[in-house]
Amino acid sequence: MNVLVTHADEPIGRRVVKTLFHDSTVGTILATGDGPPPRVFDRFLAGAEPKVRYARLDLSKHRPVSDLFHSGRFRSAEIDSVVHIPHHGAPADGSATILPGLPVRTAEARLVLQHCLEEPSLENLITIGSAFVYKLPPGNANRLDEDSDLDLDPNVTLEIRSWIDCDMIFHGEVHNDRLRVVLLRVPTVVSEGGYVYMNPSLVGRPGLRLRALGFDPICALVSDKDVARAVLAALTASKSGIYNIAGNEAVPLSVLTRWTQRSSLAVPSTLLGWIGAGTRRLGGDATASALDPDRLRYGFTLDTRRAERELGFRSGYRVGLARAGDGAQRLEAAPI
C-alpha cells in the first residue's frame, strides 16, 4: 500500500505520516504541504530511497494538483491510496477564499475528489471531516450517530459551511463502485503539548473567549494519535462509508477552555449572536464561528460503534491533565 497524504506539514498531517511510516503494511508515502517539509520529517526523508517523499503543493489550484497526479513522482511511487487531511492548523486556513464565497477547504476537497475519481490506479480515498457539521438540538445530552442530521441552516458561518460542503462532497461518493471512499468525522482534536484543533469555539491563540450565559456545552475529545490510528484502520479495512471517531472523554467547554490556557466571559446568547453577525459582516468569519450561539449552548458526544464494528477502531488514548516536569498541569493524550 502506497499512500499520498495531503497537508502533511500541519499538525494532524504530521501525526498521520508518522503513524503510517511506522506501519509495515505501508510502503511509499508521498507527503504534500503548503510549505517546506517539517523538521520532524528529517529522519523520514533520509537515505537513498526514503520511505517518505515530500512535495510542496498548492492544493487549491487545479494546475498544481493535476501536475502532481500526472507526474513521474506520482507514478514511480505507485500510489494506490490518498489520505486527504483538510486545512486545520490556523483559523485563516479554512476561512480564506480564493473565489467569492468559496473557501479554500471546499476548493481543495473538490479537486482532490475529482483527481482521485479520474486516476485509475487509485483504490482508496480516506478523508478527515468535522463532527461539528451535525445539527445540534437544544440540550446537552445529544448523542450523535452517522445518520444524525447535518446543520443545513443557511445562516451558519462560512467556516462551518466549508466543513459541511466538504462532508457532502465526499458523502456523495461513498457508494462509488471503483474508488473506496471513507469519511472520518472527528470532534475536538488534542495533540501533544495541549494544542487543540477543529473546534470552532477555540480557534486561534489562547486568550479571552466569550461563552453563552447559563450554558456549558459538552465537548467530545479525541487524540491526534487516535485520529491517525483511525486513518490507518480505514486504509486497511474493506469498508467504505462515514464513521464517527472519538475518544472516551467528553468535558464541558469551560473546562476545555481552562485546560487550553484560555479565559472566558459569560454573556447573553442574544448578544453573542449580534457580535457574531457583526463580525461576519466585517469579514472575520473565524471569529464569528467562535461566537456561534448554538455551539456555545448545546454540546454533543459521538456514537462510535460503527467504526468499531466495521473498521476495527477503538480509542487507544485518554485525554486529560497531567503534571509536567515544571510542576504545572497541562492537557495531554496518553495511552489507555
Quick take:
By secondary structure, this protein is of the alpha/beta class.
Description:
The model is unreliable at 91-96 (pLDDT under 50). The strands form six sheets. This protein has a seven-stranded parallel sheet, with helices on both faces. The protein has a four-stranded mixed sheet with strand order 11-10-13-15. It is α/β, with parallel strands linked by helices and 336 residues long. It starts with a strand and ends with a strand. The chain has eleven helices and 19 strands. A hairpin with a 5-residue loop joins strand 18 (317-323) and strand 19. The protein is globular, with a radius of gyration of 19 Å.
Describe the biggest sheet?
7 strands, parallel
Number of strands: 19
Instruction: Characterize the overall form.
Output: globular
The helicity comes to: 25-40%
Structural class label: alpha/beta
Strand content: 25-35%
What is the N-to-C succession of helices and strands? EHEEHHEHEEHEEHEEEEEHEEHEHHEHEE
- Rounded to the nearest angstrom, the radius of gyration is 19 Å
Number of helices: 11
> Would you tell me the overall average pLDDT?
88
Q: What does the oligomeric state look like here?
A: single chain
Alpha carbon gap, first and last residue: 29 Å
Please state how the strands of the largest beta sheet are arranged side by side: 3-2-1-4-7-9-14
Which consecutive residue ranges, at least 5 long each, have pLDDT under 50? 91-96
What's the structural blueprint in terms of helices and strands?
Blueprint: E1 3-5, H1 11-21, E2 29-33, E3 52-56, H2 62-69, H3 72-76, E4 81-84, H4 91-95, E5 97-99, E6 102-103, H5 104-118, E7 124-130, E8 142-144, H6 158-171, E9 180-186, E10 188-190, E11 196-197, E12 208-212, E13 218-223, H7 224-236, E14 241-244, E15 250-252, H8 253-259, E16 263-267, H9 269-281, H10 285-290, E17 300-302, H11 305-310, E18 317-323, E19 329-335
Parallel strand pairs: 1-2, 1-4, 2-3, 4-7, 7-9, 8-17, 9-14, 10-13, 12-16
Antiparallel strand pairs: 5-6, 10-11, 13-15, 18-19
